[in-house]
Amino acid sequence: MGSQKNTVPFAGTKEQEAALLKVIADHKDDKGALMPILQKAQDIYGYLPIEVQSIISNEMNVPLEKVYGIVTFYSQFSLNPKGKFKVSVCLGTACYVKGSGDIFNKLQENLGIGDGDCTADGKFSLESCRCIGACGLAPVLTVNEDVYGKLTVDDIDGILAKYK
Amino acid sequence: METFNIKINGMPVQAPKGSTILEAARLAHIDIPTLCFLKEINEIGACRICVVEVKGARSLVASCVYPVAEGMEIWTNTPKVLNSRKKTLELILSDHDRKCLSCVQSGKCELQKLCSDLKVDNELLYEGERTHYDVDTSAAHMYRDNNKCILCRRCSAVCAATQGIGVIGANERGFGTNISCAFEMPLAETSCVSCGQCIAVCPTGALAEKDFTDDVFAAITDPDKYVIVQTAPAVRAALGEAFGLPIGTNVQGKMVSALRRLGFDKVFDTDFSADLTIMEEATELLDRINNGGALPLITSCSPGWIKYCEHYYPDMLDNLSSCKSPQQMFGAITKTFYAEKMGIDPNKIVMVSVMPCTAKKFEIGRDDQNAAGVPDVDISITTRELARMIERVGLNFLSLPDEDFDDPLGRSTGAAVIFGATGGVMEAALRTAVEVLTGKELPNPDFLEVRGTNGIKEATYHVAGMDINVAVASGLSNARELLDKVKSGEANYHFIEIMGCPGGCVNGGGQPRVPASFRNFNDIRSLRAKALYNQDAEMPLRKSHENPSIKLLYDEYLGKPGSHKAHEILHTTYVKRSINKF
Q1: Of B146, B163, B183, B185, which to mutate for an interface test with A (greatest number of A Cβ within 10 Å)?
Q2: What is the DSSP letter of B123?
Q3: Other CB atoms closer than 10 Å to residue B452's CB: what's the count?
Q4: Which residues in B lie closer than 8 A to residue A58 (C-beta atoms)?
Q5: Nearest to B172 among A3, A50, A58 (CB)
Q6: Helix, strand or coil for residue B212?
Q7: Which of A152, B59, B235, B572 is least crowded, fewest Cβ atoms below 10 Å from its Cβ?
Q8: Cross-chain Cβ contact B166/A66 below 8 Å
Q9: Could you tell me the pLDDT band of residue A5, with boundaries at 50, 70 and 90?
């Protein structure tokens, strides 16, 4: 995961903030509340920029660094916004030996973005992930909830075309 | 006390219930090596240096956190144990910047000592991928070089747990794990208060104060400069450690002697301005009590505490004493009163302070700290830096004669020397305030209720028909606890002393580093404090208002405590800061 400050301007709405504050209020006194709050915050905003993490830090009365340490530890959290279509390529062991590295490179080339980035039009984001539990279909990629398996590099253009 | 019968390396040992294997082994005269473990601060059993074999256990166990049980059989020195520790060190070294010769911690590094003790004989064993980090030099007081970090997490634990700040911590995971601030922000942009406790507990050279010794040497050798040094009370209680003396040895005389031989034009004592602080602060307290000012009045000697208050309690700035800290008062008086008296241009004076503190490096650059139109203090160095200067010029510290501070700004009382320990400022202020209020001499100047290393101390004194409620806190987590009680109305005090570091300045972030192997079994705060209380008890003058140089200063220059002139020179202002605002 890229840990650099996100450069896409924050465009959170009042509604999103109200939803986040409600989530925090609901969980505030729970033990280990940070994880579910962060998960729901990511559902609300799609990612966890400094503005969102600061709200959580202030409301929960925990240091921002503690929040950030958790966000950067778990690969499920993202500091960067996701595209309308989230392309995720498994680089876990089984997929990797079946050539997912080449597929990932092809996607970077085709979309013109790197791991963890989003295209300028906000349409596609690309990320590598580890095992998604579909090793029988290796190599595997997902676009949002759609799963594509037993891929070759030549399949990529066709898959992306469906979403353009 | 309930004890368990256990065996360590075949020898029977009776260990108290609840003790760890590490503690039990001490009873059997065995020092199990540790690295990440810092008692009550970082008990995470992560580094695996302290592993031992336990009969029946499926693998080696971390002795620092593993409790003993009846009948337990432990081996601390089998080949399996020793090889495991050595392998752990070799793996740490595989991603460690091994520039030991030029490292600030060379000779004092806990990792270096472990490698020597455990016979690591090839630091180049694993030449694999290495991480590379930029050094964070953003803060006024310190730098962080993650290339030397071993991820023990002592620093982040002391920052979060002891100080309640938590601006540094572990980010990322696996090989990318690194200690840094949220969003890789430079330390200077966070709510770091500069206390330096992270440096004090770092086992390697990853964290260190910014070293200004070259600047001091340059000033001393500049013929156009008049270089004056002041030394804080706590420095004399710890400097000797750098030269092998036991913790708690008072080396005031040798310290003065060394400073004179280093070439300072005058060797003065911050204790003088500690007495001056009491004159101003006690006056301020009585004024606020009599005239309905903001209470409780809270001390302002500790710049780490001040910055903490500005970040975390910006609504309580009115409660802070407007007195500059003793360091700054000293500089201000030197460049006004002393400069005028001696006919020296303040622009030619270089005021150097030797402090047990890293936050003092931040403090000298604050606004409104320039009574003579130039900075009150020019260079602030830590006790560690002074030790380095002494080593560098080859002074044989242990054989130096004991010498006295120069007059008149080297004179002080017992009230001033105890400033270096938690509760000391409170006690010093009480000695003066009580005599002013009652108009009678105190039969016994000891206020034992505010002494000791408890994080929070409270007392009520009945003086001249009124009850004065006081509280003392050291360490910023304790400060937070105390202030929250004040804000909620649960507690009602007239006067509070707060020191940023646990135990006060004797345990400041600029003091000689004490390895965890000692810290885990000894209270360095009370050992060093004892040196100061002993000195106080032996001094002929023990109350700030009895200091003849203080009387001279007010008679000749300031008028009386709290005068307009005193306010111009000795008092300052604070700024509201925030947390998480970028």
Answers
A1: B183
A2: T
A3: 15
A4: 579-580
A5: A3
A6: coil
A7: B59
A8: yes
A9: very low
Cβ within 8 Å, pair A50-B166: no
| Residue showing tokens 């001249």 | B464
Output the six-digit token pair for B381: 């160095």
Where do we find the tokens 């913790």?
Answer: B247
Kind and range of the H or E element at B6? strand B3-8
For the segment A98-105, the average pLDDT, to the nearest whole number, is 96
Nearest CA in chain B to A4: B183
Contacts of B172 in chain A (CB under 8 A): 1, 3, 72-73
Domains and CATH numbers, chain B: 3-92 (3.10.20.740), 94-209 (3.30.70.20), 213-570 (3.40.50.1780)
Exposure letters B65-99 (e unless 16+ CB within 10 A, then b): ebebeeebebbbeeeebeebbbebbbebbbbbbee
Chain B closest CA to A136's CA: distance in Å? 27
| A48: nearest Cα among A7, A80, A1, A22 | A80
- Out of A5, A63, A66, whose CB is closest to B183? A5
Q: Residue A132's pLDDT band (boundaries 50, 70, 90)?
A: confident
pLDDT value of residue B582: 62
* pLDDT-flagged residues of chain B (< 70): 582
pLDDT for the residue B124: 87
CB contacts of A66 in chain B (<8 Å) are: 160, 166, 169
Q: Which residues contact B321 (CB under 8 A, 6 or more apart)?
A: B281, B284, B297, B298, B299, B300
Inter-residue contact B432 to B283 (CB < 8 Å):
no
The beta-carbon neighbor of A50 closest among B160, B168, B183 is: B183
Residue B382 backbone dihedrals phi, psi, to 5 degrees: -90, 170
Amino acid identity of residue B414, one-letter, is G
Give me the DSSP letters along B82-120: HHHHHHHHHHHHHTS----TT-TTTTT-HHHHHHHHTT-
Mean pLDDT computed over A110-139: 89
* pTM of the entire predicted model: 0.93
Label residue A76 by pLDDT band (50, 70, 90). confident
| Contact between chains at A58 and B160 (C-beta distance less than 8 A) | no
Per-residue HEC secondary structure of B376-413 comes to CCCEEEEHHHHHHHHHHCCCCHHHCCCCCCCCCCCCCC
User: Which residues sit opposite B6 in a β-bridge?
Assistant: B13
Which residues does B402 contact at the CB level (< 8 Å), separation at least 6? Answer: B252, B253, B254, B256, B257
Rounded CA-CA distance B151/B426 in Å is 39
Yes or no: say if B531 and B356 are a contact pair by the CB < 8 Å rule.
Answer: no
Look at B168 and A5 and tell me if their CB atoms are within 8 Å.
no
Q: Supply the ipTM of this predicted assembly.
A: 0.93
CA distance A67 to chain B (A): 8
Comparing alpha-carbon positions, the chain A residue that sits nearest to B578 is A58
> B303-312 and B476-488 are packed helices; what angle lies between their axes, rounded to 10 degrees?
50
Put simply, the answer to whether A5 touches B184 (Cβ < 8 Å) is yes
The alpha carbon of residue A63 is apart from the nearest alpha carbon of chain B, in Å, by: 6
Taking CA atoms, B160 is separated from A55, B89, B475, in Å, by 19, 27, 11
- Tell me whether residues A66 and B169 touch, CB distance under 8 A: yes
Of the candidates A55, A44, A52, the one whose C-alpha atom is nearest the C-alpha of residue A15 is: A44
Q: CB B160 to CB A64 under 8 A? A: no
The shortest CB-CB distance from B580 to any of A1, A4, A57 is to A57
Binary contact (A65, B182; C-beta < 8 A): yes
Contact B577, B191 (CB under 8 A): yes
